Amino acid sequence: MPRTALATYDPGTGPTRDTDLPELVRELREAGADAESRFWDDPDVDWSAYDLVVVRSTWDYAWRTAEFAAWVDRVDAATRLLNPAEVIHWNRDKRYVGDLAAAGVRTVPTRYIAPGSPAELPSGYEYVIKPASGAGARYAARYSPAEQAVAVRHLARLHAEGLTAMVQPYMSAVDTGGERALQYVGGRLLHASRKGAVLTPGTAYDAPRTPHPGLEQWQPTKDELALAEAALAAVPGGSERLLYARVDVVDGADGLPRLMELELVEPNLFLFLHPESLPKVAREIVAAAS
User: Fold this and answer.
1) Which conformational region is residue 222 in: left (phi greater than 0), alpha (psi within -120 to 50 degrees), or beta?
2) N or C terminus: fewer CB in 10 A for the chain?
3) How far is CA 98 from CA 1, 29, 105, 141, 246, in A?
């Protein structure tokens, strides 16, 4: 049986937020794999003992990017890693959104402000500031033009931590149409979900928030599918190497979907919402491990 490790984060004394993980391990074992979950930062794990390591829910990596990058390279040198190391390195920095835009993918307009750059913020519309390295809406907030002083302090905090900031117009259609997530496994659409707006007015960037409010199943439109396919086709090295992908889209002012994020590192697949997808994911992992 192929040995497979699902890399996750260490929740400490609390319960894990990855409710899919035990069900996926069970499904993999039923499908014929010798599978187990392991903490990605556990120094006692011999990753070379596995035929495949799947980066499944390393959800604290955005706080420890250098450590995580070194771990990715070590595992990649020891065994097969999915998604591939070069894809993970490209995708863990959200400056990839600029790469996709340059490749012709319809994205949310994005400007990047690196540490040491002038704090030039929008003045005529509502906008969002978030770090180029982040997850789960960490350090993200929306601002009106009247909140420039607060936004400048937010920007200063990001720069003080060595983080490049992303500045995007707030896509107000998310308040009514939500944000949709199209999930792919093995190069094929697995399922889709929709959630409500995460960023509410007046909420501080460092305040706790619910990452997936009002999550529900969703039937993607033709325009959403076309956008997702275009984004995946623009992945450096080709999307055929990917085990999984999640394409997050919102509607622009013109009513057409725009890419918010392309999640290729450790996206939540929402299998608890789509239990029928569980065996499909397990089959793809077993095939990759074999």
Assistant:
1) alpha
2) C
3) 42, 40, 9, 20, 17
